[in-house]
Design brief:
Largest sheet: 7 strands, mixed
Number of helices: 11
Distance between the termini: 82 Å
Strand order of the largest sheet: 2-4-3-1-5-6-7
Order of helices and strands: HHHHHHEHEHEEHEEEHH
Strand content: 5-15%
Mean pLDDT: 78
Helix content: 40-55%
Shape: elongated
Length: 293
């Protein structure tokens, strides 16, 4: 019987890998790739290098029989995983949300044609409003929901449902309006809330000191979701867009419309540029660094 077991073990070592072996290797490789990508795109990049140094020190301690150092490092590893989860809770939460909003979940959304149509008129109205805000230095903050849901932010403001209209946006951000200090949330081509509070950026040291709370909130929102955030400076009238943890400043209305169309209506033919807003104010280089406080 023992001989049969030995023969079976020998056969298993020389047989080609099964489908499940290949699948196992593929899944493991994908997970390693995602972890490395996560490390490179977040603050964890520097920490990862530190972990490599600690692991190398631990292996060296074991190799040279340095029992005290090996014992301390081994105990540090035991609590290291919990510490990493606590330190990088926002990044891990964002990654898990992205997994849930992957393209595999696309069957829950409407058809591409309907998605394209619902944004055509709203983009025009948003650009008209931004043209007015830029010309009159009216501060504005608008968040356009994409794949990740913004229920937490909607609950912080006044919820209602209305078609996007430039006149309505002007009234919401009018200086004496009770909702003008907060953000407007736009969902599926409609306004769903106003006066909303957004999280501030977790990287204030990387933000231009001249930028005000609106821009910091826009960056913070872009760090916690895949939303598009439009900001108009109250001091200079400069139009900006925040997305994917970055802020693009000094946009003309034409450039704003192009960006919104590319992000929200990617299949729309843009071979004929719109002439609307051609006379819009385009901020100079000097103004780009003078945002509100």
């Amino acid at each position: 019987m023992e001989l049969l077991y030995e023969v079976k073990s020998s056969l298993l070592t020389i047989l080609p890998p099964s489908f499940f072996d290949i699948l196992d290797i593929g899944v493991l490789a994908y997970l390693i790739y995602k972890i490395l990508k996560f490390m490179s795109q977040n603050r964890a990049g520097g920490l990862f290098k530190g972990i490599v140094v600690i692991v190398a020190a631990y292996l060296a301690a074991k190799l040279f029989h340095m029992k005290a150092l090996a014992f301390i490092l081994e105990k540090a590893f035991n609590i290291g995983l919990i510490a990493l989860v606590i330190l990088f809770q926002p990044e891990l939460r964002r990654s898990l949300e992205n997994m849930g909003q992957s393209k595999l979940m696309g069957f829950t959304k409407g058809s591409k044609g309907s998605s394209q149509n619902i944004w055509e008129a709203p983009i025009d109205e948003i650009c008209k409003a931004c043209q007015y805000f830029a010309a009159n230095s009216v501060g504005a903050l608008m968040v356009i929901e994409r794949n990740e849901k913004l229920g937490d932010q909607i609950s912080t403001g006044t919820a209602f449902k209305a078609e996007i209209n430039s006149m309505l946006l002007k009234n919401l951000f009018f200086i004496n309006s009770p909702l003008h200090d907060g953000a407007v949330i736009i969902q599926n081509g409609e306004i769903v809330a106003a006066g909303c509070t957004l999280p501030l950026t977790s990287r204030p040291e990387l933000v231009d000191k001249a930028l005000g709370s609106r821009h910091k909130a826009a960056l913070g929102m872009s760090e916690n979701s895949d939303a598009l955030i439009i900001v108009v400076s109250e001091e200079t009238g400069v139009i900006s867009i925040a997305e994917n943890r970055s802020l693009t400043r000094g946009l003309s209305v034409d450039a704003l419309k192009t960006m919104l169309t590319e992000r929200l209506m990617p299949e729309k033919d843009e071979t004929k540029p719109d002439k609307e807003g051609s006379g819009d104010k385009k901020p100079s280089e000097d103004n780009r660094g003078k945002e509100e406080h």
